[in-house]
Automatic annotation (TrEMBL):
Residues 2-254 form the Glycoside hydrolase family 65 N-terminal domain. Keywords: Hydrolase. This is Glycosyl hydrolase family 65 central catalytic domain protein. The lineage of its organism: Bacteria, Bacillati, Bacillota, Bacilli, Lactobacillales. InterPro entries: 6-hairpin_glycosidase_sf, 6hp_glycosidase-like_sf, Gal_mutarotase_sf_dom, GH65_N, Glyco_hydro_65_C, Glyco_hydro_65_M, Glyco_hydro_65_N, Malt_Pase/Glycosyl_Hdrlase. Belongs to the glycosyl hydrolase 65 family. It comes from the Bacteria.
Length: 740
């Protein structure tokens, strides 16, 4: 909540007050027209556009198009006139500003009192996008005359297809209006994304609005062929108030195969919604949010900022994705901005999967795995483009086809293939459900393994397998040889795939058709994979040549040159030893039980001092490893950074939208870090500690049909079985039986 309105921070406020329901979402921009700087953004899950890839030097293998999220038709538009003058907070005199995001119920409220001459009116906007009826957006406008004389009120409620994307190449518009229908008290717009030359689907969206109000409906002319408007007018005497509800149904061609079906669905849903009151619609929505919080809330006492941070993280994750649609995934910005194109990255498998496993039903995570399986054809295409066998899952995608235009990231950061394989293992290990890995998952693993077997090369000089020309998770190093993280993931994937092939049914083995020669080759790569190591430092070397850099710690960088990505040339960054995000340490986190305490300590101590954490994904991993090593202050410092990354605008880039996939970091740091949660041989293990800055923390965790509550205070750790059959867990090396 804030009572301050600072025009220079408006984009920041818009990002931080974004809401969504997995199907659609929006930034916290104003309903009414605002003539100052703003980034208006409404986004629909799975609706995107393939923009032509534009690069200075075309290289063979580049994707033809760059996928981007499309700013949707503006269906929340509501302009207000007081005595004939339109409200515009960039110009008007106003007071009592309040902006409140209720994360418990997912309700955004904005209020202010505007003065126009003798008129003084209190204005309150409320909005939510329903999780009970995902196609539904609801707004409620309350106007109260707080002046001493009568005022004339006019409200223009509109749906406007004349929208643009800020990142469009040449200020293009991406929507073509198919039809409009403006009636006296309702209206609709159907629009289709503009044609593209790449053969990707065009998307049609239809938005229909209806209203509930005691204001008088006024028939007006349609303003343009791209917009419909309903006008409502009335007079308010001193202390009198009025309300107007706007209910919009949003449907897309992702769910309907014709414009007629789209229109019918929109009208049917609108009729259903019209039969319910505002309170009924909101209560159904709020109840689902209550259930989500009951399963996943993390409570922290003694540090208000830490508490706010973790709840903000979970709220935005749930607003972006809750697994209802296996065709969707988790974009790095979710529904909060256009940057990164709104597409799927490896962030999902590496960071989101561990969190969703712990706070939702397993089917939510399984849908994330199915998303990749269903896009195998695109992964075959990506590998073939590079002249390689098997499947290369994309760095950035909407449909399985690679659609990113930075060569060093798109075609060198191939560790994502290993991250996707690891997510299959992570799901299977955590849930105990092997039905995916023995069927769809075995196919994904096999095709990834075929890619790795073709991508490695054998060094005659060292008699080992190597992988050259890659970018690891640390994107401040491009085109390096033998990135340790990439190599160990390739080795591990081949080893895991060979193990799974021994478990699949004869029918599935026949479908996979892995020959004995292939298996022999894969085992040879496992046995002779080169993993850079320095025995004097007892560290895994990030890549060949890393130790030849000018190894000065981050502490020697002048403060006015941080973040370096906003102050240094790319040349200087590439030559430096500074690490954008965990690279070697990402691998140690993945396989945290496979390394000795000495190995973890020497690698953490070495790499931490070179890490600038200029990736939003970085601090959480370091926090877990710091906690594992007993570095409490460092663990808490990095938790605070990950949990409040956007709230405190650490990297000076929250104006573009929130870092949704990085919001997994707060949960990871608390549960895996401070509580020491691990899964070993199907059993939950904990090794909790209470940070000195906190008085208490607690969380609930879903595990194999159990809901477990973990409560840590100054007296120690306490465990409770909320639901499920009795279960035995390990706490600091001792068995503890939990029963209701």
């Amino acid at each position: 909540m804030t009572h301050d309105f600072k025009p220079e921070d408006k984009r920041l406020q818009e990002s931080m007050t974004s809401i969504g329901n997995g199907y659609m979402g929006m930034r916290g921009f104003f309903e009414e027209d605002y003539s100052g700087d703003s980034l208006s953004g409404l986004y629909l899950g799975g609706v995107w556009y393939p923009d032509k890839t534009r690069v200075g030097w075309w290289k063979n293998g580049y994707p033809e198009y760059f996928g981007k999220v499309v700013n949707a038709v503006n269906f929340i538009k509501m302009n207000i006139k007081i005595n004939g003058e339109k409200i515009d907070l960039a110009k008007d005199t106003f007071s009592d500003f309040n902006l409140d995001l209720d994360m418990k119920k997912s309700l955004l409220t904005r209020s202010f009192t505007v003065t126009k001459g003798e008129a003084k009116v209190a204005v309150t906007f409320e909005r939510f996008v329903s999780v009970a009826q995902q196609e539904l957006s609801v707004q409620r406008l309350t106007l109260k005359n707080v002046g001493s004389s009568k005022v004339a009120i006019v409200v223009d409620s509109a749906i406007d297809a004349d929208v643009k994307n800020e990142d469009a190449n040449y200020d293009e518009r991406f929507w073509e209006v198919v039809s409009t229908d403006q009636q006296a008290d309702r209206g609709s717009v159907m629009a289709e994304t503009t044609p593209n030359p790449f053969g990707t689907p065009r998307f049609t969206s239809a938005m229909g609005m209806r209203h509930v109000t005691d204001l008088k409906n006024v028939k007006v002319d349609q303003p343009s062929d791209k917009e419909v408007v309903n006008e409502f007018a009335g007079e308010l005497g001193p202390n009198e108030s009025t309300q107007l509800e706007k209910r919009v149904i949003v449907v897309t061609s992702r769910d309907y195969d014709s414009n007629e079906a789209l229109t019918k669905a929109m009208d049917t849903l609108s009729d259903q919604v019209a039969a319910q009151s505002y309170d009924q619609l909101f209560d159904a929505h709020a109840k689902i949010w209550e259930d989500r919080w009951n399963k996943s809330d993390i409570q922290i006492d003694g540090d208000i900022e830490a508490q706010q941070g973790i709840r903000f993280n979970l709220f935005q994750l749930f607003s972006t994705y809750y697994g209802e649609d296996s065709r969707l995934n988790i974009g790095p910005k979710g529904f909060t901005g256009e940057k990164y194109g709104g597409a799927t990255y490896w962030d999902t498998e590496a960071f989101a999967v561990p969190v969703y496993l712990g706070i939702t039903d397993p089917k939510v995570t399984r849908n994330l795995l199915m998303y990749r399986y269903k896009q195998l054809d695109g992964a075959y295409h990506n590998a073939k483009q590079q002249g390689l066998k098997g499947a290369l899952f994309p760095m950035v995608t909407f449909d399985g086809i690679e659609c990113h235009n930075e060569w060093e990231i798109t075609f060198e950061e191939i560790h994502r293939n290993g991250d996707i394989a690891f997510a299959i293992y992570n799901y299977t290990r955590y849930t105990g459900d092997d039905s995916y890995v023995l069927h769809e998952g075995s196919k994904v693993l096999t095709e990834i393994s075929r890619f790795w077997a073709d991508r490695v090369h054998f060094s005659q000089r060292k008699q080992q397998y190597m992988i050259h020309g890659v970018t690891g998770p640390d994107e401040y190093e491009n085109n390096v040889d033998n990135n340790w993280y990439t190599n160990i993931l390739a080795q591990w994937t081949l080893k895991y795939t060979l193990a799974i092939l021994k478990q699949v049914s004869p029918e599935q083995a026949k479908k996979l058709n892995v020959s004995d020669d292939e298996k022999k080759q894969w085992q040879d790569i496992v046995d002779r994979m080169y993993l850079p190591y320095d025995k004097d430092l007892n560290i895994f070397v990030q890549h060949d040549g890393f130790l030849d850099k000018d190894l000065k710690p981050v502490s020697e960088i002048p403060a006015d040159q941080l973040p370096i990505n906003q102050h240094w040339s790319w040349d200087k960054i590439l030559r430096s030893p500074y690490i954008k995000q965990g690279d070697v340490l990402q691998g140690i986190w993945d396989f945290i039980d496979d390394f000795t305490p000495e190995q973890k300590k020497s690698n953490f101590d070495f790499y931490e001092k070179f890490t600038v954490h200029e990736s939003s994904l970085s601090p959480a991993i370091y926090s877990v490893l710091a906690a594992d090593l007993g570095y409490e202050e460092k663990a808490v410092e990095l938790y605070e950074r990950t949990a409040r990354l956007d709230l405190d605008n650490y990297n000076n880039d929250t104006v573009d939208g929130l870092h949704i996939t990085a919001m997994t970091g707060g949960w990871i740091a608390v549960v895996q870090g401070f509580a020491g949660m691990r899964v070993r041989d199907g059993k939950l293990h904990y090794a909790p500690f209470l940070p000195k800055k906190w008085d208490h923390y607690s969380f609930r965790q879903v595990f194999r049909d159990h809901l477990i509550e973990v409560d840590v205070d100054k007296d120690g750790a306490h465990f409770k079985l909320v639901s499920g059959e009795p279960i035995t867990i390990d706490v600091a090396g001792k068995d503890v039986k939990l029963a209701k």
